[in-house]
Structure of non-reducing end alpha-L-arabinofuranosidase:
Amino acid sequence: MPPTIHIDPARTIAPVDPRIYSGFTEHMGRCIYGGIYDPGNQHGLVDENGYRTDVLDALRELRVPVVRYPGGNFVSSYRWQDGIGPKDQRPRRPELAWLTEESNQFGTDEFIHWCRLLNAEPFICLNMGTGTLEDALGWLEYCNSSANTHYANLRRANGHPEPYNVKYWALGNEMWGPWQVGQLSAEDYTKKAFQWAKALRLLDPSIKLVSCGETGFSDWDRVTLKTLAPVVDFHSLHLYTVSQNNHDINVMGPAAAEKGIEITKSLIELAKIEAGVERDVGVCFDEWNVWDPVRAPGEKGAEEHYDLSDAIAVASWLNVFIRKADIVKIACIAQSVNVISPIITSPRGLFKQTTYYPLKLFANLMQGMALDIHISTSSSSTSKGEEGDNDDDEDTNFYTGPTVPPFIAHLAAHTPPSARPTRWIDASAVLAFPSNSHNNNNNNNNNNTKEIRIAIVNRHKSLSFDVPILFGPEAKVNEEQVTVHEVWSPELGDRNGWEGEKVGVVERRGVKWEGVWGCKAHSFQVLVFELA
Ligand code: AHR
Ligand code: AHR
């Protein structure tokens, strides 16, 4: 039986939080310097303050709502005070995360200015490595205080009379990792973060705090959430999926994130029950992407050159966030420019990687109410998946090959066995209200227009699938007017680069709907159905 998609607009999950399309800019490789900030640029690509205008334009197309900064591992030995004030007086420092030097020519004020240009909210990660609580309070005061106090006055003296009102603050980055300056045990981190949260809220009760999590399926998450869920607004997860030059592993990796999110949701609920608190605590998946640190090492700037297989993996990642809209409230692709990024710059311009296009389609189209899509396949599939290597079944709907060994990279996704089976066809759906959105490019919309938008990935390298889509009884779709946005290319290894683009988006309007969608091998598409 072919995979069949069932969609009933009455079966809603939760509104898609636009913050799942957020970004991340770390002082790492060419993300800041030469990426978003390039003051010496000789090719007319920067504004009067040195911000790359082509990069801003490319990120605006992705509608990035929130940007995390300044790390990442970088933050754990960062002195924020070095990055403010007259540029010629800012100290150069050794940089311990990526073993470089930090010029401090770009710091907090430049970051906030850049976020305003992008129309994105800043999200600051605090240094819990070498940094003290006093440093953290000083940073918060510098950014948010309107009082007549030292750091607020220092901000004014630096030319910024109004508080920045930075809403999102993270309590450290990957404090569990052996690579982290100031690594802590889960117990030690929990005690410290609890006290930091209390003090930071005393200074500014309006802020949203993010606890440092791991993958969601790690004991660190269990231990820290038990105490911290009652005092934070979000719990952060990080995961990178890795290909090991194996397409199947590359595209199935996001199943690990989905499992981690499910476990985290339960851990949050348990901690709230135990503490008797009602506050909303969401998942902030603030580092996710495809990254093979062996292929693109962090110390060398982690400039991945993505191919079509990676774009399909990114689409699968984004399907996870839509399906988990009830709990995932923020997600930041790591990172926004040059470093494991959908955009690569040179002094003369930029190119958009393959992974840019699924991200762009999701950010622009997959907004609205997430729907509880169901994919049915043959009845034999459940037992097959649980047993994993039962290959006497000819069912071609499921992947049953090897998962990623956990040792390949420090954050490489290791798909937990319970996250399997994973289907070749992966999908998510939203009920969208185009007339309420600034993404309304359909001229004859009236105020009642609704659309069902379905993001479908066929992850199989060589099989195409004819996928029936069955709509619930309430959904009357306009069968004359389906719009299709497709990301596809003949070869899985196809890439974009300075020489040109092999992978982009092909859009077709007015496609006649006949009940079944033919999904090409290794393709991604968003189908847009108008509802009567
Ligand atoms: O995004 C690259 C790095 O990956 C970040 O600095 C760190 O948090 C993670 O290990
Ligand atoms: O934990 C379950 C709930 O799911 C959270 O309170 C809320 O943020 C999400 O919708």
User: Anything to note?
Assistant: Residues 379-394, 405-410, 438-445 have pLDDT under 50 and may be disordered. The longest helix spans residues 254-275.
